[in-house]
Amino acid sequence: MTIFLGADHDGWELKEQIKTALQSQGHKVSDQGNLKHEPDDDYPDFAKKVAIMMKKNPTSLGILLCDSGQGMMMAANRFKHLRAVFAYSTEATIGARQDEDANVLCLAAKELNLKKAQSLIDTFLNTPFSKLARHKKRIQKLKKL
């Protein structure tokens, strides 16, 4: 499984740290940008790049970062095949994976350090979808919206 990363200028530094940490743990990581700090970049561009790659790799996961994480979440959820969630707590991240089979984690780079971000990411990566019938039904309804 590949983890696709994307971040704008506000999330760039933390993305770089996360990329190094994930690679050192043996994860396959694909950085969709920004590849250097560019103060005039726009978060929707990187959400789109991750979305395109995830469409080609349906079992992959994504991690997106911007200042608040909210912009990336809004951009990612424009793509029908993505179920992006904002990680504000461990419990919420567990629920998003177990119940909604979230496949994109959005992080608030201005609020997190690497240790806290890594904790949320580890939870995201290690929590499986429950596959309960009621959760599958809800995901199907989301796809039809």
Short summary:
The protein has 145 residues and is α/β, with parallel strands linked by helices.
Structure characterization notes:
By secondary structure, the chain is an alpha/beta fold. It has one domain: Ribose 5-phosphate Isomerase B, Chain: A (3-Layer(aba) Sandwich), CATH 3.40.1400. It has six helices and five strands; from the N terminus they run βαβαβαβαβαα. It has helices spanning 12-24, 43-56, 70-76, 90-100, 114-126, 133-144, and strands at residues 2-7, 28-31, 61-66, 84-86, 104-108. Strands 2-1-3-5-4 form a five-stranded parallel sheet, sandwiched between helices. Helix 2 (43-56) packs across helix 3. The longest helix is centred in the middle third of the chain and has 14 residues, at 43-56.
Essential attributes:
alpha/beta; 6 helices; single chain; 145 residues; 17% strand; 5-stranded parallel beta sheet; Ribose 5-phosphate Isomerase B, Chain: A
